[in-house]
Amino acid sequence: MAGSYADRDGKIWMDGQLVDWRAANVHVLSHAMHYASSVFEGERCYNGKIFKSREHSERLHFSAGELDFQIPYTVDEIEAAKTAVLQANGLTDAYVRAVAWRGAGEDMGVASARNPVHLAIAAWEWGNYYGDAKMKGAKIDIAKWKRPSPETIPVHAKAAGLYMICTTSKHAAEAKGCSDALFMDYRGYVAECTGANIFFVKDGEVHTPKADVFLNGITRQTVIERLKDKQIQVHERVILPEELEGFEQCWLTGTAAEVTPVGQIGDYNFEVGTLCRDIAADYEKLVRS
């Protein structure tokens, strides 16, 4: 599938029914467009099965609650809708996007309690998020922005507004020939990339930033579980920027990114080593099992 996401064949599930792709529109005065009252999930379907589908649907409900609105569909109804979308579009290997938002209604200021909440689910074929970086290792920039304090935003929600600095940082990275950008947090500690969590290897042990100011990704949790199953020591901890020089391997995790090796962050280089390749292969096998 290629071309504009607004001009494609297929069906999108929207507020309880399947509609033509090009007709899945919202009003220009939707609250989400003006005040970022929107949450979403990104999921991958492999061989007809969405990996950890229910966990994603449950997190969608959690994220909405963090933004003070309630999705008018149960987790079971969301699960059924995702199945309907895949079937309607004849997809067995796809990326699935569920999004819930406050629409246009009686309120058009910051407050929006009287506005209806909508839900839409779309699915499409999508290859490697970082292209050939999945084989040779991604090149990563260091973002000028920092992940904010949990006292300022709902850091554990997958909320659209939290991605504003991700977009600007990824644009800046791509302008430099990089695939992505690494954020530090408000304290100056290593945090995450624009749409993926990050892992490092040193002396056979794995180190990853503690998920206290950013989304604790479902793929991140899965990879940590697999590493522990392999009896590999995993340290979830504060990581200082100056430690980057001492790490041997690095990879990113996320539903879109899956497990992608990193070859360079700023001036620091990393080997696309055995452990990175093993955990990537293990993840590929798991999601297709």
UniProtKB/TrEMBL annotation:
GO terms for molecular function: L-isoleucine-2-oxoglutarate transaminase activity; L-leucine-2-oxoglutarate transaminase activity; L-valine-2-oxoglutarate transaminase activity. Pathway: Amino-acid biosynthesis; L-valine biosynthesis; L-valine from pyruvate: step 4/4; Amino-acid biosynthesis; L-isoleucine biosynthesis; L-isoleucine from 2-oxobutanoate: step 4/4; Amino-acid biosynthesis; L-leucine biosynthesis; L-leucine from 3-methyl-2-oxobutanoate: step 4/4. It catalyses: L-leucine + 2-oxoglutarate = 4-methyl-2-oxopentanoate + L-glutamate; L-valine + 2-oxoglutarate = 3-methyl-2-oxobutanoate + L-glutamate; L-isoleucine + 2-oxoglutarate = (S)-3-methyl-2-oxopentanoate + L-glutamate. Signal peptide: none annotated. The keyword Transferase applies. The keyword Amino-acid biosynthesis applies. Keywords: Amino-acid biosynthesis, Aminotransferase, Branched-chain amino acid biosynthesis, Pyridoxal phosphate, Transferase. This is Branched-chain-amino-acid aminotransferase. It comes from Thalassorhabdomicrobium marinisediminis.
